[in-house]
Design brief:
By secondary structure, this protein is mostly helical. 53% of the residues lie in helices and 3% in strands. The chain is elongated.
Length: 131
């Protein structure tokens, strides 16, 4: 009985004000009640983006070389990134942008620049605070 009461509080009663505020916020942005016809996974994909995939061509077009990176190093990075699973693509994006999803506009809007590690031989670093 205690476990049921605790679960009811934590999963229903205790979060009711936050759920109501969330609903109100969504309704403020989307005036149509049709928004509630979507499943939670569909809303998540709409608001947060879906799984992340990018092609070799997209990477070649949208990764921005900087700081004198050699073309063969950039090509090697593109080859590796193009073979990543969607989960790994998300992890890569989270490392370089602090977000595991692509922004609206896709890879071109992410503005990912690639430069050689400084000092030479050091581990890769993300520059997420410079955007």
């Amino acid at each position: 009985e205690f476990v049921e009461s605790a679960a009811y509080w934590w999963l229903r009663e205790g979060i009711a004000p936050q759920v109501a505020a969330f609903r109100q916020g969504v309704e403020d942005v989307c005036a149509s009640a049709a928004i509630w016809a979507f499943e939670a996974s569909e809303l998540s994909a709409l608001f947060c983006g879906g799984h992340v995939e990018f092609s070799k061509e997209q990477l070649q077009r949208h990764l921005r070389p900087k700081g004198g990176i050699e073309i063969q190093d950039l090509d090697l990075l593109v080859e590796v990134l193009a073979r990543l699973t969607p989960d790994r693509c998300g992890q890569f994006l989270e490392f370089v942008t602090a977000c595991p999803r692509l922004p609206p506009g896709g890879l071109s809007a992410a503005e990912i620049s690639v430069s050689p590690a400084q000092p030479a031989g050091s581990l890769p670093r993300a520059r997420t605070c410079t955007k």
